[in-house]
Amino acid sequence: MIEFDRVTVTYAGAKDPAIRDVSFTVPEGELALVIGRTGSGKSTLLRTINGLVPHFTGGTLAGRVLVNGRDTREYRPRDLADVVGIVGQDPMAGFVTDTVEDELAYSMESLGVAPDVMRRRVEETLDLLGLADVRDRALTSLSGGQRQRTAIGAALTSHPAVLVLDEPTSALDPQAAEEVLAALQRLVHDLGVTVVMAEHRLERVIQYADRVIEVPGGSTAVTTGLPVDLMVSAPVAPPVVELGRLAGWSPLPLSVRDARRAAVALRGRLADHAPLRPVPVEGRELANCNDLVVAYGNVTALRGVSLTIKAGEIVALMGRNGAGKSTLLNALVGLVTPRSGTATAAGADPRRTRPKQLVKAVGLVPQEPGDLLYAATVADECAGADSDFRVPAGSCQALLNRLAPDIDDQQHPRDLSEGQRLCLALAVVLCGAPPLLLLDEPTRGLDYGAKRRLVEILRELAAAGHAVVLSTHDVEMVAEVATRVLVLADGELVSDGETATVIAGSPAFAPQVAKILAPLPFLTVGEVATALDRAS
């Protein structure tokens, strides 16, 4: 169905190719998982499948890509639309209508599908992806996860033979992600659809893949193979695989179910050793909400939320898509006006504080990191941040190098991958070292290495007396770094407690290690490694 024959893509002005000498075949009815570090060329590889590279992005394509027998150099994206459906990293960039239902119907209208068939497919897709309750909503009013599900639905309604997905679960809560992946499984197994998916959160998808395509970046060759074979030495691996490596299991398990069967002896070795966790040293109050109510027209996003966040805490804000997490962060920086109640950040009312003073008290990295980036190059962006926050020259660049060391500082921010743009936005905000740091989906598009580096920085900030609040669906990140978890449901605060207490027993929010080793209270592979060292 898909054939790459010695494909090399080089963008104008780039020193090196984005991908080099790539050859592989994906048969009909398989799910191929594309993995690799942030910025390694995964998105470029995906875009060659429907002709976006080079017809839309520019650059040169050497070699040949065949999709259902069509050469993508000869067929433009519109000529492949009946065969290939694609969902990019930024759903809003691909929307062409105003409402959810119209967006689901648009691709079918373009292909001339009969009205009665269109209606049936729209209804099926609304039910399949849990979008029926927002069918008439404006796309701009949706949460990030709802937008992502809409984008996936818009690609599915035209019934493509090939479906290409770039980070399809990055903005989805765990339950929504499972539903989307289950739907993709049905497409692959029951309808013979070929799915090519790039994803950093391997813990969600690796067990579903028929083959893995590893894109290491640079001059290293792309490799393909069975998931269990590539995971033995892959530099990016989910916690279930890292735990298997630590315990010496063979073959390596790819699912929690298989790992639990292999973990009987490991649970016995760990039974008398509780995990060691640092106790946060809390300081002054840096955020406060008192009976906060926020509404958008007739939709109430927050319902009487009251909470306090203190210096030294790293607080994870969790909940389903549309639960009100982003609204709460926006209220703390004054981007939304409460209907009633109050929200203060570092002692200031964000609605009554001048922006120049507010940025010294609180910093927000939004879901769309590009909203913070205005300069023509990465270097200019970093220099501007140094100047704005009056810190020594090179401070922002140093933070960026820690998060993503391989970014060319002469690139335009829009030419970066989604993960690289996020790293740049993080560096810009972190450069100001605000007492209160708010991060909205801070691991979207980040590989495991970049997430580990971000964890180190957040821990350093907390130790220095800052408070961090991160809205996230990344349960593995929460297990690694959060000292406390708040759970929102339909705008209400339904849970507030220590991380292990809140997430360990939750079917939706428990990390892989907790599921594998339950009822033992371990959350991360690092905690297990420390306990085994103590036991030996």
UniProtKB/TrEMBL annotation:
Residues 2-243, 287-515 form the ABC transporter domain. It comes from the Bacteria. InterPro entries: AAA+_ATPase, ABC_transporter-like_ATP-bd, ABC_transpr_CbiO/EcfA_su, ECF_ABC_transporter_ATP-bd, P-loop_NTPase. One of its GO terms (molecular function) is ATPase-coupled transmembrane transporter activity. Keywords: ATP-binding, Cell membrane, Membrane, Nucleotide-binding, Repeat, Translocase, Transport. Belongs to the ABC transporter superfamily. This is Energy-coupling factor transport system ATP-binding protein. It comes from Kribbella voronezhensis.
